[in-house]
Amino acid sequence: MVHMKKTVTIWLILAWYLTASAQDEMPLYSGKIPNSRDVAHPEKVDNWGPRDRFIRDTSIPTITAYLPKNPNGKAIVICPGGGYSGVAIDKEGLLVAEILAQDSIAAFVLKYRRPMDITNVDKSLAPLQDAQQAIRYVRKNASKYGIDPQKIGIMGFSAGGHLASSAATHFYKIADSNELDTTSVRPDFVVLIYPVISFTDELTHMGSRSNLLGEQANEAEVLKWSNEEQVRPDAPPAFLIHTADDEVVSVGNSIAYYQACLENGVPVEMHLYPYGGHGFGMFNKTTQDDWMGRLKNWLKGLK
């Protein structure tokens, strides 16, 4: 049995190397980072286990590309979760990118800035600026990577789901008011995995809201960043995954976004599981169902 497991692992690793290649981690911005303060870079890394790192307090955002050998034209920017205090870079980022690349999808893992007053002028805008810049980067380099510029989506886990849903609902206004590049930052589809969507008291993950907006967020700020309230008919098609027993981010977040899509005529697919809790990444061990397989099927059906 041990020998068999080792053989399977070797073949999985070999399959990945045959189907995808990872670039070095690249700076997201070529020049000065917008909305940033010139202070020491406070980033630190917690190693929780093999390929299970949590990166905290990022002030210099980066992007890492996983490129399939035979691209099908689709690309996804991945926003790992972490309550807007950091990112689960492996579990909800690099490992996900590897699996997507195996299915011929170009994947770009975004290590976005933690919203902090010490490193940002307006901390509430920093993550969205990074998400929009990531979409802009992929779209501008589409021909280089074998990507259709009209098939670029964004994916987010937990608070990364709030960021992804922000990109899907706030694209009509550039987060960096000084940005002159007119490349579209509208994602062509959005994938939300146990996402924070709402900042209302009833539904929000308070840690995420406090980290982005501060402890004393006013009603207007809460409304602006409650993305179920920001869905418009031109929002991109959405795919959602959540569990009923999630005690960290209420399943009501996904349900609220799903309902908002229905009300605005936005194509949406949602899969809810009875168990699994929060933060399971690609593998919900309570079910034989493979949500990644469902996502791949959904992506194949997108026009």
Task: Compose a concise summary of this entry.
The chain has helices at residues 2-19, 90-102, 126-140, 142-145, 159-169, 206-213, 219-224, 252-263, 291-301; strands at residues 20-22, 26-27, 44-47, 53-56, 62-68, 75-79, 86-87, 106-111, 152-157, 190-193, 238-243, 268-273.
Could you characterize what this model shows?
Helix 3 crosses helix 5. It contains 9 helices and 12 strands. It has 303 residues and is an alpha/beta fold. The longest helix has 18 residues, at 2-19. The strands form 2 sheets. Strands 1, 2, 5, 6, 8, 9, 10, 11 and 12 form a 9-stranded mixed β-sheet that branches. Strands 3-4-7 form a 3-stranded antiparallel β-sheet. Helices cover 32% and strands 18% of the residues.
Question: How is the topology of this model organized?
Answer:
Layout: H1 2-19, E1 20-22, E2 26-27, E3 44-47, E4 53-56, E5 62-68, E6 75-79, E7 86-87, H2 90-102, E8 106-111, H3 126-140, H4 142-145, E9 152-157, H5 159-169, E10 190-193, H6 206-213, H7 219-224, E11 238-243, H8 252-263, E12 268-273, H9 291-301
Parallel strand pairs: 6-8, 6-9, 9-10, 10-11, 11-12
Antiparallel strand pairs: 1-5, 2-5, 3-4, 4-7, 5-8
Helix pairs in contact: 3-5
